Here is the input.
Amino acid sequence: MKKLKYILLILSITLTACVSHYQNQLEAIDTLIDKGQIDSAKSETQNIRYTGLHNESERALFNLIQTRIDCIDGKMPVSDASLKQGIIFFTKEKDYVHLADCYYYKGTIEFQKGNRRSAFLDMKKAEEQASKTNDLTIKHKICERLLDWNNSCGEYERP
Here is the structure.
């Protein structure tokens, strides 16, 4: 009986360590991207097997990270399905920073596809979620993108 308890204890510690390892690793990769260290982030992402992710939180963050890397590299994803899943998850968790990021990249993808109306709506949703945080980086990124789009669409006043 003592052996069984000991084995169960070791097993539960091991499983807990694995879960937090991926979460910590994903958060570290997210930070690398925020710091502009894309090559390092890509390298770290290669060390993660999607099938090894244990929960919805890890999958949502991994998908967001992968989308961020792809967009930064100029490879726009064909589908925004993983971002939609992230939006559902981050909304449920009230994780406004990642939620704003999901809307930001969803809007970016829509704009690249030529769907300007939905792109602007998504970016405004990103702006709304970012306003619930103290994260100046995401707020600046959204504002800069909106200004860029307004200029490229001719949506500004001429003197």
Q: What stands out?
A: The chain has a mean pLDDT of 87. The helical segments are 2-34, 38-46, 56-72, 81-93, 96-112, 116-130, 136-153. Residues 103 and 124 are 8 Å apart (CA to CA). The chain has one domain: 2-153.
